[in-house]
Amino acid sequence: MPSIDTSIYLFDNILSMERELPEFKDLVGIMDALRSERGCPWDREQSAATVITYLLEETHELIEAVEEGNPNKIREELGDVLFQILFLARIEKEKGRFDIYDVIAGICDKMVTRHPHVFGGAVCETSAEVLRQWDEIKKSEGRHAESSLSGIPKALPSLLRAFMVSDRASRAGFDWKDTEGVLEKLEEELKEFKEAVSDSTAIEDEIGDYLFTIVNVARFVQVNPEEALRKAINRFTGRFQHMEQAVKSQNKSLSDMTAAELDAMWEEAKREGA
Question: In terms of residue numbers, what domain contains 170?
């Protein structure tokens, strides 16, 4: 097993090869040309704030491609995400801060440092041990100096943020002992929610508590709640649109149908895999 120093040397060589990789150099050159004085007016007008919008859009398109399992779309969307990353790096280069090669060097160093069980003499036999070691290394870097919950972006989607917060708290030692414990908590929160339905001042808090507990249930059964909800929304959308098409073929709308007819159409959409 190579030492950390040896591994950094190997990664430095990889970085040097990246500089000589024709396709990568071409892409960097394209970005340089787009942002040059003779480049594209639209690309020259973009800022970090505007590029972030496109990065988010492209990232979600990549997620959809991965979930569909279409390799051609995954390859294309990975390229689109990479381009937005290059765009941001180019903007920072123009400010004299860093360039894309500094970004690559930084992540190489970080991954080597945080994987001493691969690039050094540490030993981790399980994923749990790797996570504990990861947290310890981050603490040694001063990243969790104030709190174990430091560094979790507040701009994350709420379900994903709740998942990360509860996971980080668990790794710090604050958690239920087993799934049964968190399920009991879920029942408790549901009871409190039902009691608060008529109380307009408390209902929002109780819904929040109930959702947060559901996130913890998901964590215990090793399900990412953000992904689970997104897939549920996709299923609902597909089935609803299937129903819309069915009534449209009859020159009707969903509001023309009875509750029983809507239930039957929903079950049909499920059977047909919509």
Answer: 159-223
How many CA atoms, within 13 angstroms, populate the side-chain half-sphere of residue 141? Answer: 13
pLDDT digits (tens, 9 = 90+) for 45-56: 999 999 999 999
| Amino acid in the structure at residue 32 | D
Q: In terms of domains, do 35 and 102 share one?
A: yes
Sequence-ordered strand ranges (E) for 13-164: none
pTM of the predicted model over 0.70: no
| Amino acid type, 234 | N
Name residues whose C-beta falls within 8 Å of residue 146's C-beta, 6 or more positions apart in sequence.
none
Q: What are phi and psi of 14, to 5 degrees?
A: -60, -40
Residue type, 231: K
**Dihedral angle sign, alpha carbons of residues 55, 60, 65, 69:** positive
Cβ contact 171:162 at 8 Å = no
What confidence tens digit (pLDDT) does each residue in 23-45 have? 888 999 999 999 999 999 999 99
123 lies in some domain: no
Q: Pick the closest to residue 165 from 149, 153, 178, 177 (CA basis).
A: 149
| Residue 71 shares a structural domain with residue 165 | no
pLDDT class for 20, splitting at 50, 70, 90?
low
